[in-house]
Specification:
The protein is mostly helical. The protein has three helices and no strands. Keywords: Membrane, Transmembrane, Transmembrane helix.
């Protein structure tokens, strides 16, 4: 499952940035319009990567595990 998540996270910016560069291939690479367009594509793709990472990655379960362990220890103490 993590492999699929990582693939999606990598594919999104590759598609966005790659298609932007392909569509602007005839533009002058040093013009302001090209640089601004590439910058916007980069910002959008990084924002989407951040959102995908937060939504798709499993949460850290350590706080829940420690609470469950503390509850288990209390129950074990009562049984003795």
């Amino acid at each position: 499952m993590k492999g699929l998540i990582y693939s999606i996270i990598v594919a999104v910016p590759v598609i966005i940035i790659g298609s932007t560069i392909y569509l602007t291939r005839s533009w002058s690479p040093v013009s302001v319009g090209t640089i601004v367009t590439w910058f916007i594509a980069w910002v959008v793709s990084m924002a989407l990567v951040t959102i995908l990472y937060v939504k798709l990655m499993p949460r850290n379960q350590s706080s829940d595990d420690s609470e469950n362990e503390a509850t288990q220890n209390k129950e074990d103490g009562k049984r003795e």
